[in-house]
Amino acid sequence: MAIVATRALTKRFGAGENAVDGVDIETRDGEFLVLLGPSGSGKTTVLRMIAGLEDPTSGEILIGGRVVNDLTPRERRIAMVFQSYALYPHLTVYENIAFPLKAQGVPKSAHDGKVGWAAGKFGIVHLLARKPRELSGGERQRVALARALVREPQVFLLDEPLSNLDAKLRASAREELQKFQREIGTTAVYVTHDQVEAMALGDRVVIMDKGRVRQVGTPAEVYDDPADTFVATFLGSPPMNLLERDGVVLGFRPEHVRNGAGGSDDARFRFRCELTEYLGSEQLAFGTLEGWEGREVVWRFPSWEPAPPEGSVQEVRVEKTRLRFFDAASGRRRPAAPLP
Amino acid sequence: MSSRARGGRWLGPALVAPAFAYIALLVGLPALLSLFLSVSDARVGSDEIRFVGLANFAEAVRTPSFRAALAHSFLFTLASQLLVIAGATLLALSLKEAFRGRGLVRFLVLLPWVAPISLGAIGWKWLLDSIYSVFNWALAAAHLVDPMNPPMWLGEPRLAMLSVVLVHTWRTLPFATVVLLAGLTSIPRDIPEAAAVDGGGFWRTHFTITLPMIRPILLVALLFGVVFTFTDMTAVYILTRGGPADATQVLPSLAFFTGILGGDLSGGAAISLFLLPLLLAGAIVLLRIARRTEVT
User: Fold this and answer.
1) Pick from B198, B293, B295: which is nearest to A100 by CB?
2) How far is B18 from chain A (nearest CA, A)?
3) Are A206 and A315 in the same domain?
4) Closest Cα partner for B209 from A100, A30, A148, A18?
């Protein structure tokens, strides 16, 4: 187990903008840290630099307190699971899992035991004689995880390992991955663009955009207290409602909108409903707030509540403690203010 | 039947026809003719032709020059193809990496293949000349050889064989390099990266991951090289004409000297066809292996 840290990590490809721009992150020992961001945010590049597959333009990478910039991937004692799984197609599952052992010079007599242990952890012992092309997507993913586990690395690096699975399989694989990481207790850095995965798996989430870190925090912190309007709108589906007036941006989550006039602890609005959507477990109403026209507002409520008729105007409220304020120019959070 | 299906019935054969005609007229017909000649007693200047069965083959095997040429053909092919495969693997591995001037190096590597072979071989003939050899001049200047008695690159049996092997290697290296480079670039980038993270060093990754993955294409390159080398006489013909004293004579050049220059058409045809069954069998085996080891 080890702590992974980056200091002012920067990567520039060619003469363009920095793909990764001064990133400082630090895991805790045994933590599951998720790097979350849209495509092109630099999260995969950060992971590849930690793995040693990409040289930083500047900055430092530390694993277990030691600067590893000049170490080869092999010397960093990390294991990585690739998005494509990168299984060796001409080797059997057994040979795939045994490859890191061979490469590390583990005596051959120990291979059977270790391969069996790693395969057992992921329930793939019956697949050991097969070639990767004879496996389903889910089975390949388990083989890739077993291959990463077998050498008992200091750190696990995972690059969108669930993105090639179908939606149903992904949910169960996510759950297994979480149980597995808790059991092994090895520090893991996990890259994804899927916020549900990030929220479900991460002890903490690092939110990245355009090569920079926008916020680091627990899933609840980044969701409830976004550091800026990017994080506020990147997380949540539908995202946080943002309304602007006099240089201040007011934000609140769609699920925090309530029906009725409310009391002194509530901010009151009049919601003009333009469209409703029934989604099974919940409903969405799209419209505008009177006096705040110009920006669409989404209201989320349970499917058993009656939906406002389209074209109607309703009294709605949001608890004042649920309101978030941002600076319109910079997008950064600012202290709570009286409603403008 | 739809018009598309009707078009499909004639379009395919029409597109294949020119290639088929080309192969039938320029490869098939001469091959059949030489097959016919090899079992006859045809000679230049005689209009009588009789069927003699396998007599020409039996006669060829009896002559010492044929047996020597057979041995030389194997030596020439094995040595040059070993060098080609090793060299092409090294070149392909280094040309796969990005570095400054890679385009220029790739162009230079391809040059021997693109330039007419006669030009190249004549250049080599001068480089290896007994009097004007620039190699000997350089070696003498470096005090590595006696300037009064320099090595005769094309005049001493062993050196002559070494010279034709090296020139043929120089000539066939680019093709094998390009084929291997294509094979290497077809390996997804993730695979060697996964091997690097898994702790594989250069040699282990090369021999347990890269090489097995490009084995099918490597075998195809080898097959082409072997068949081409067994049937080619350019380097030998231009550099040594099979000399000194048949020391570099290979089957194709012996067939040419016997059949065309010597006028013994049937004997030449028998010599040139001698390896056909062996090469066919070899080709089938190599293609089988290539198909079985297909990895993706």
Assistant:
1) B198
2) 39
3) no
4) A100
Flag whether B240 is in a domain: yes
Place of tokens 């995880």: A145
Closest-CA distance of chain A to residue B218, Å: 15
Cβ–Cβ below 8 Å for A103 and B198: yes
Q: Compute the C-alpha angle A141/A145/A148, nearest 5°.
A: 140
So what's the pLDDT on residue A209?
A: 94
Same domain, B26 and B67: no
How many CB atoms sit inside 10 A of residue B277's CB? 9
Query: In this structure, is residue A229 part of a structural domain?
Result: no
CA–CA gap between residue B228 and residue B39 (Å, rounded): 25
Q: Hey, CA dihedral for B69, B70, B71, B76, is it positive or negative?
A: positive
Is the pLDDT score of B148 beyond 80?
Answer: no
**Number of domain units in chain A:** 2
Containing domain of residue B16, as a range?
1-38
CB-nearest to B199 from A90, A91, A104 is A104
Per the structure, the complete domain to which residue A256 belongs is given by: 240-327
Residue B199 has its nearest CB partner, among A74, A82, A157, at A74
Please tell me whether the overall predicted TM-score, pTM, comes out greater than 0.90 for this model: no
Least confident of A167-176, B44-53, B212-221: B44-53
Pair A250, A107 in one domain? no
- Quick: pLDDT tens for B149-194: 777 878 788 888 999 999 899 988 998 998 888 888 888 989 999 9
What is the rounded distance in angstroms from the CA atom of residue B120 to the CA atom of residue B167? Answer: 9
DSSP annotation of A80 reads E
Q: What share of chain B is helix, strand, coil (3-state, %, to 5)?
A: 75, 0, 25
Q: Where is pLDDT greater, at B222 or A283?
A: A283
Q: What are the tens digits of pLDDT across the range A262-303?
A: 778 888 999 999 999 999 999 999 999 988 877 899 999 999
d(CA A230, CA A121) in angstroms, rounded, equals 39
Cβ contact (<8 Å) for A82 and B204? no
Q: pLDDT, tens digit, for every residue of A63-80?
A: 999 999 999 998 898 999
- Is A332 contained in some domain? no
Q: What is the mean pLDDT of chain A?
A: 91
Retrieve residue B33's tokens: 């003719």
Q: Cβ–Cβ of A89/B196 closer than 8 Å?
A: no
For residue A295, give the CATH number of its domain: 2.40.50.140
- In terms of domains, do A57 and A149 share one? yes
Q: Say whether both A255 and A134 belong to one domain.
A: no
CATH code for the domain of A194: 3.40.50.300
Nearest chain B residue to A102 by CA: give it: B200
On whether residue A233 sits in a domain, the answer given is: no
DSSP A116-177: HHHHHHTT-GGGTTS-GGGS-HHHHHHHHHHHHHTT--SEEEEESTTTTS-HHHHHHHHHHH
One-letter identity of residue B109: V
> What average pLDDT does this structure show over B184-207?
89
- How close B154 comes to chain A (CA, Å)? 46
Tell whether the model's pLDDT for residue A59 goes beyond 60: yes
SS3 category, A301: strand
pLDDT tens figures, B20-63:
999 999 989 988 988 888 888 877 777 777 888 787 888 888 88
For residue B212, whether the previous peptide bond is cis, meaning omega lies within 30 degrees of 0, is: no
Of A321, A324, A274, which is closest to residue A299 (Cα–Cα)? A274
